[in-house]
Write a structure and sequence with these properties.
By secondary structure, this protein is an alpha/beta fold. It has 4 domains: about 120 residues, Response regulator (Rossmann fold, 3-Layer(aba) Sandwich), CATH 3.40.50; about 160 residues, P-loop containing nucleotide triphosphate hydrolases (Rossmann fold); about 70 residues, Helicase, Ruva Protein, domain 3 (Orthogonal Bundle); about 50 residues, Arc Repressor Mutant, subunit A (Orthogonal Bundle). It is built from 20 helices and 14 strands. The strands form 4 sheets. Strands 2-1-3-6-7 form a 5-stranded parallel sheet, with helices on both faces. Strands 9-10-13-8-14 form a 5-stranded parallel sheet. Strand 11 and strand 12 form a beta hairpin. The longest helix is centred in the last third of the chain and has 19 residues.
Length: about 450
């Protein structure tokens, strides 16, 4: 079947329209036929100039463009659409194995990418996801219950970035201190995007034994190893169509980093004991409190994997950077805890609020929640005052550090070093046992000791 008119209209009423931009006639025909079978209208053109002309006179729900065109690069079209029609998702078609082009397109604002030779199953899945994106005015509540609370400039900036990132399939790296809300941000990105009706699968990479990682991530076939009595799906298969959240991704050993990189690039995984691969449609969001760039320089994290995961970086601010939000957060947490206990939420005195705003909160929002829960349980009267917060020891330690000319990080390092020394003493210098006492993985303990110069 030939395309006598590549911009033809199929007369299907209000069918959604897709703009296809590719200089190869056979690719245009393949895409046109595939989209038609999905009930979509396709306008097919072969150059950047024709694409720009079509965009001025017609509204589209999706644009598919090749990266190499006779009068320019597909990236130019991605940027043009981002500037002129920001609500239009753009997916790019890249040459097989061209990871650099794919990442460049995602960084420029592309919704997703697909590699040649085009897999029709992957194409249909990508198109379906793009068309399921919520409209610009129909997103979820980023500020309400379960959202990201706060009115500080830092929180407003994070909310704005989450809203934009949710309309893409690009991998996201969320950085920030422990307790700053990295998983909450990942869940919001998932909830506000096209994958909201599919699974959100959180994985703590530091909690999985190294010898089980491959089978946990990719699944296994019956009989693949001793104890494999039946087929089992891995994290990638469970998250198919949805989002895989890799918390503490820096804890992955180098051997697993190689396999994760391939799964992300090829969008295919192989179960342990299987002979063939299977396609998976997963958006990967990762998080860590460690500095991945430093780990790359130290040779402990693969540069190519960092390049793939860090397409979009979202930094969660520490609570001490949003002090003006602390009163609102404290009251919100108290209200939630009181509702759960079927009790009346007690007020916070002005002095208690001032003490909270002056406290450094090294544990961030998670620590604030602990402080509020303890205060609610132990308060002496019908309101929460400074004494109920039990912050004095921490404040005095902070004053001592400041007086000595140190920083908050110096103080935290000192506390962490002493906790490790105590655990090692209690376990007779058995690091495995010490890691259990501290509630961290062996790899995490080893990293912390190296960072603090305790391995000598």
């Amino acid at each position: 079947m030939s395309l006598k008119n590549e911009r033809r209209t199929r007369g299907r009423g209000e069918a959604k329209r897709v703009l296809v931009v590719d200089d190869e006639a056979d690719i245009r025909e393949l895409l046109d036929l595939t989209l038609a079978r999905m009930g979509l209208q396709a306008d097919c053109v072969g150059s950047l100039a024709e694409a720009r002309r079509m965009l001025t006179g017609q509204r589209y729900q999706l644009c598919l463009t090749d990266m190499r065109l006779p009068d320019g690069e597909g990236l130019e079209l991605v940027r043009h659409i981002a500037d002129t029609v920001p609500d239009l998702p753009v997916a790019v078609i890249t040459a097989h194995g061209s990871a650099e082009n794919a990442v460049s397109a995602l960084k420029a604002g592309a919704f997703d990418y697909i590699a040649k030779p085009v897999s029709l199953d992957q194409l249909r899945g990508m198109v379906k996801s793009a068309l399921e994106l919520p409209g610009p005015d129909s997103g979820g509540d980023l500020c309400g219950e379960g959202g990201l609370l706060g009115e500080s400039t830092a929180i407003e900036q994070v909310r704005g970035l989450i809203d934009r990132v949710a309309r893409s399939q690009a991998p996201v790296h969320i950085s920030g201190e422990s307790g700053s809300g990295k998983e909450l941000a990942a869940r919001l990105i998932h909830t506000l995007g096209a994958r909201r009706d599919h699974a959100f699968v959180p994985v703590n990479c530091g909690a999985i034994p190294e010898n089980l990682m491959e089978s946990e991530f990719f699944g296994y076939r019956k009989g693949a190893f001793t104890g494999a009595s039946e087929d089992r799906e891995g994290f990638f298969q469970v998250a198919d169509g949805g989002t895989l959240f890799l918390d503490e991704v820096a804890e992955l050993p180098l051997t697993m980093q190689v396999k994760l990189l391939r799964a992300i690039q090829e969008k295919r995984v192989r179960k342990v004991g299987a002979t063939g691969e299977e396609a998976v449609d997963v958006r990967v969001i990762c998080a860590t409190h460690q500095d991945l760039k430093v780990l790359v320089e130290q040779g402990r994290f693969r540069q190519d994997l960092f390049y793939r995961l860090n397409v979009i970086e979202l930094r969660m601010p520490a609570l001490r950077e949003c002090r003006e939000d602390i009163p609102m957060l404290a009251r919100h947490i108290l209200d939630r805890l009181a509702r759960a206990a079927e009790a009346k939420s007690p007020p916070l005195t002005a002095a208690a609020l001032a003490a909270l705003q002056g406290y450094p909160f090294p544990g961030n929002v998670r620590e604030l929640e602990n402080v509020m829960e303890r205060a609610l349980a132990l308060m002496a009267g019908d309101h929460i005052d400074v004494a109920d917060l039990n912050l004095v020891p921490f404040q005095l330690a902070g004053v001592a550090v400041a007086a000595a000319g140190g920083t908050l990080q110096d103080h935290l390092d000192q506390v962490e070093r002493q906790a490790i020394l105590d655990a090692l003493k209690q376990s007779n210098n058995n690091r495995t046992a010490a890691s259990r006492l501290l509630g961290v993985t062996f790899r995490s303990l080893r990293y912390r000791m190296a960072r603090l110069g305790m391995n000598e």
